Amino acid sequence: MDRHTIFETENKIILEAETILKEKNHEKNPLIEPFSGLLTSYKKIFKQLRRLIKLSDKQQLKLNQLNESLEIENYELVLELGQAFESFVRALTTTVDAKHPITAGHSHRVTEYSLLLGKRLKLSDNDLEVLKYAALLHDIGKIGVPDAVLTKKGRFTPEERAVMNEHSVWTYKILSAMRLPQMLKKVPKMAACHHEKLDGTGYPYGFKDKKIPKFSKILAVGDVFDALTSKRDYPKYDGNVTMGFEAMPLDKALSILDKDKGSHFDPVIVTKAIDESDTLVELWQKFHLT
Ligand SMILES: [Fe+2]
Fold it and tell me: How many other C-beta atoms are found inside a 10 Å radius of the C-beta of residue 96?
């Protein structure tokens, strides 16, 4: 029963009681007298009760307004913390750029390519956020690679290649040491697995298809696409064929991804990349020509 119905019922009871008492008073019945006093007291209590209910309504309204403003304040704080965290992560990736200027912007570009693929794969907003951080941080382990190897101009010796490949283990070590928010708990493994291949010949763990996290498979496509379409200090490879240092034409890069789908890359993700080639060209132009 809501308070409006309670008040109406109370009014009705009082009115009826007053009517009865008036009628009975004509008969000067001594038994009725105490009821008249009772009804007066009851009316006073009821009036007081109404005042209290009105007061409580006002306080509830104030409480609701306070809650609302606290919620807004809380939302703004969370937003601010999120922005601070993202800027911290982006600053970390800049330290890798500073160590190896020719690859500057690589993590940022891989992030944009990966997010494009993630959207086309219909990932949720939350998953896209996770993918963003895995992409931004995938090469953070390059901090652990000696400069002599990282910035070497030309082909790596097998020993140097092994040292360079260690960067994904460093990525895992560095990210595992960070106290990441709960939703980003899987980012260290996702980021560390960006060089794994479906046939198990990748590194650092040699995981095969199902053991490779889905987001790492997206990163793999974004990572290689950017590596092939950007200028590098070391030559590009197509299987065992050594190619040039310069940025490769985009259709050639996509044809390499297509050729290696099923062995290196997830075919579904490569197909999405090829379907989105026009958007990839636009992104590439934005990154390299502006
Ligand atoms: Fe890498």
Answer: 21
